[in-house]
Amino acid sequence: LCVVALLALEHLVLHWNWACGIISTKVLRVKNRPDEANQAVYGVATFITLLVMLLAGLVAATLAVKRSTL
């Protein structure tokens, strides 16, 4: 699951220009796309946010597992 999540995250990073274009034109209905510098900042922020969410899920799963008392 972690490998698939990391691969999906990397795929999002590789296609970030396309994602920004779709989000800005189709979702937010903005006529002018953000410039490359802003797209880079948004991409890094999104990457960090998703990575932190993935790590938080891993920590929560680790803490939820009960250790055997054998």
Count of beta strands: 0
Series of secondary-structure elements, N-terminal to C-terminal: HHH
Strand content: under 5%
Q: What share of the residues lie within helices?
A: over 70%
Strand count, sense and barrel status of the largest sheet are: none
Low-confidence stretches: none
CA-atom Rg in angstroms? 17 Å
The chain-level structural class is mainly alpha
Shape: elongated
- Taking the alpha carbons of the first and last residues, their distance comes to 28 Å
User: What number is the mean pLDDT?
Assistant: 79
Count of alpha/pi helices: 3
Can you describe what's shown?
With 70 residues, the protein is mainly alpha-helical. The protein is built from 3 helices and no strands. α1 packs antiparallel against α3. The model has no long low-confidence stretch (mean pLDDT 79).
Question: What is the structure about, briefly put?
Answer:
The chain has 70 residues and is an all-alpha fold.
Features:
70 residues; mainly alpha
Task: Show the helix and strand layout.
Blueprint: H1 2-14, H2 16-27, H3 36-64
